[in-house]
Automatic annotation (TrEMBL):
Pfam families: PD40, Peptidase_S9. SUPFAM superfamilies: alpha/beta-Hydrolases (SSF53474), DPP6 N-terminal domain-like (SSF82171). This is Unannotated protein. It comes from freshwater metagenome. One of its GO terms (biological process) is proteolysis. Residues 459-663 form the Peptidase S9 prolyl oligopeptidase catalytic domain. One of its GO terms (molecular function) is serine-type peptidase activity.
Length: 678
């Protein structure tokens, strides 16, 4: 092997490879004859296609040209489609109307009227009534005046003539999610929350009688309702029904997002008396089951055909599987190679899910978990699952020894706290390291900020490690997966705790002699972009940075962003405008005189979450300071890049930028970037 300086290593993990035939597998559904799933395809301009599996195991694309299953609700979307047998209803990206694609047709049928304003009515998180004649979902209605309104509505799936206006079932709360119809069709559950809370702060769980009548053209309405649980101090999410009529939900009342159950009898009594019952805790464990409700229709548990409940939970930043016995008295760990799990659905006698590991990209798998309910087992026993791949990941043509396998780290940070991360060492089987050199480090600050480092193969990370960079993906205070108290560490301290923890991660790796203290880089997107900008502005630790659609001015964000996050900063910073002093104090744009290192800024021009003016203000300040910087703005891109050409250009531009400001030559030529003030 040849000894080469870090950063100059040749690698087969190129930007072209990363985007070639790249798909992001999203939601999973169970049809009458097999599985369905959604695929986000950068090579098709970010279009989301629905894919259906046939009984013989083959699969095909469902939606015709011009249609894509993606919703704009909350801007982050999720839950854009659902099945009744093999009929599918979906929210179409181009016009945001609901469409039904009958099993025996190739032409979608519009179910909702055209809105008064473009994209004015948006739909998500849908479920059918028991007879399939209605779909119940969340509608977000935009108008010229005031903020959008969120409601739960019912939409006819077989309209006579032109689509009719949906029937409003629930209105009033600022936000609504997860309308779920009981198996017998007589009850509806959902959860809600109000400004200024976010759904991981405090929500309320509701149940109501559902009235569906077929005479006189059909009628749907709600009867008696009751708030079952929740408050501003308890986050409830993922309500769903057990086939026996009991109601399952996830709540963090114990500090951890655990699974609870109300029996059918408790629900009946609550609807009669109006008094909230006491649920049964099914998973008494110090582990989070769910993730933050950033997108609709997340599913981290499923009731199997035999009554057991299979669920995912987070341990040390990675996902594990476990199963609850049918009587709810025993939780047994399930052996699985998967480290990242989503869209867990009951399927046949087992389940199906989207899963990945540090060795492979997401795949669709069917999983069978042997039933040991009546077998005496030791307290620490596990059960081995049988996994079959339904939709494999693409063939990258790259041997496993090119992939850096992360080490889960925890390290001390300010205030006697502990933070966490995934550390990826430089990895390249064709190159040996120089004995007297330590690698540059890229610190990843994830978005959200209430999100987490994803424990799965990320080619965007391997792009760097295979070229001789070390990477650490930081779970700073506020991240999901470590309990409510850890999430709340960021309250009032955004721009402080997250920045300190990213710096602490870098310093920990320097102190353990694994990276070069003079070549530390920080990068992040959205909220992670704010952390990046704050770290570069208020601290002198990093040699370079990259902000992807990052936040530079908190005051602008507080007054010019979408409804879902419009009051998020109340908890992260303080109420606006009462604490405008804090907003200015922590906004990098107001302290650009403290910037002292090069920065590349990447921005989508159609971004409704972090408008382009945020990036443009920062670039102007960099120019005035005379600092080396580059700015790339992309037409047709929103919050997060989805088009293949954008993804390629952004990644290669970032690599080129680092090579020039840190003084090394890339092994492979890329299109140059204009670096001002270099």
């Amino acid at each position: 092997m040849t000894a080469l300086p870090y950063g100059t290593w040749p690698s087969p993990i190129t930007a072209d490879l990363i985007i070639s035939k790249s798909v992001s597998i999203g939601d999973l559904g169970v049809g009458a004859h097999g599985l369905w799933w959604s695929e986000g395809r950068p090579e098709e301009g970010g279009r989301v296609q629905l894919v259906r599996q046939l009984a013989n195991g083959t699969h095909f694309d469902v939606l015709p040209e011009g249609f894509g299953a993606r919703t704009r609700v909350h801007e982050y979307g999720g839950g854009a489609w659902w099945l009744h047998g093999d009929d599918v209803v979906f929210a179409n990206w181009a016009d945001q109307r609901l469409y039904r694609m009958p099993e025996d047709s190739h032409e979608p049928v519009a179910l909702t009227p055209a809105p008064a304003a473009e994209h004015g009515d948006r739909y998500a998180d849908m479920r059918f009534t028991a007879d399939g004649r209605w779909v119940v979902c969340v509608r977000e209605r935009h108008s010229a005046d005031g903020e959008p309104t969120n409601e739960i509505v019912a939409v006819r799936t077989h309209p006579d003539g032109e689509p009719a206006e949906p029937i409003v079932l629930v209105s009033g709360p600022d936000f609504l999610a997860a309308p779920r119809v009981s198996p017998d069709g007589t009850l509806l559950t959902w959860f809600s929350w109000h400004h200024p809370d976010m759904p991981w702060d405090g929500t309320e769980l509701h149940v109501a009688t559902l009235i569906v009548e077929l005479h006189d053209g059909g009628r749907i309405d709600l009867g008696a309702s009751v708030v079952l649980a929740g408050s501003r101090d308890e986050s409830i999410t993922e309500p769903d029904w057990h086939p026996d009529g009991s109601l399952l939900f996830v709540a963090d009342r114990s500090n951890w997002w655990n699974l609870y159950r109300f029996t059918a009898e408790q629900l009946h009594e609550a609807l009669v008396s109006g008094v909230s019952p006491q649920p049964t805790l099914l998973t008494p464990m110090d582990s989070d089951i769910t993730l933050g409700h950033w997108v609709f229709d997340q599913s981290r548990y499923a009731v199997l055909a035999d009554g057991r409940i299979l669920f995912a939970h987070i341990v040390g930043g990675s996902d594990r599987l476990a199963v609850i016995s049918a009587d709810g008295t025993r939780v047994t760990p399930v052996d699985s190679p998967l480290t990242s799990i989503s869209s867990l659905r009951a399927f046949g006698n087992g389940a199906a899910l989207v899963g990945s590991s540090f060795r492979h990209e997401p795949v669709v798998v069917a999983i069978d978990v042997p039933n040991t309910d009546h077998v005496p087992v030791a307290e620490d026993a596990t059960v081995a699952a049988s996994i079959g791949i339904v939709r494999p990941s693409r063939d990258l043509g790259v041997e496993q020894n090119w992939f850096a396998h992360p080490e889960s780290i925890e390290f001390a940070t300010t205030g006697d706290r502990t933070a966490y991360g995934l550390f990826y060492p430089p990895t390249n089987p064709g190159v040996s390291e120089l004995a007297d050199e330590r690698p540059p480090l890229i610190v990843l600050s994830h978005g959200g900020p209430t999100a987490a480092a994803r424990p799965q193969l990320a080619l965007g990370v391997q792009f760097w490690t295979s070229r001789g960079f070390a990477v650490v993906d930081v779970n700073y205070g506020g991240s999901t997966g470590y309990g409510r108290a850890f999430r709340k560490q960021l309250d009032g301290l955004w721009g402080i705790v997250d920045v300190e923890d990213c710096i602490a991660a870098a310093q920990y790796l320097v102190a353990t002699d694994r990276v070069d203290a003079e070549r530390l880089i920080i990068r992040g997107g959205s909220a992670g972009g704010f952390t990046t900008l704050a770290a570069l502005t208020f601290h002198d630790v990093f040699a370079a940075g990259c902000s992807l659609y990052g936040i530079a001015d908190l005051e602008v964000l507080a007054t010019d962003t979408h409804k879902f996050e419009s009051r998020y900063l109340d908890s992260l910073i303080g109420p606006w405008p009462e604490r405008s002093d804090l907003y200015r104090e922590r906004s990098p744009i107001h302290h650009t005189e403290r910037l002292s290192c090069p920065l590349i800024v990447l921005q989508g021009l159609d971004d409704a979450v972090v408008p382009p003016n945020q990036a443009e203000l920062m670039v102007q300040a960099l120019a005035e300071r005379g600092l080396p910087h580059a700015y790339l703005a992309f037409e047709g891109e929103g919050h997060g890049f989805r088009q293949a050409a954008t993804m390629k250009r952004a990644l290669e531009a970032e690599a080129y930028f680092y090579s020039k400001v840190l003084g090394f030559e890339l092994a492979d030529p890329v299109e140059p970037v204009t670096i001002v003030n270099l």
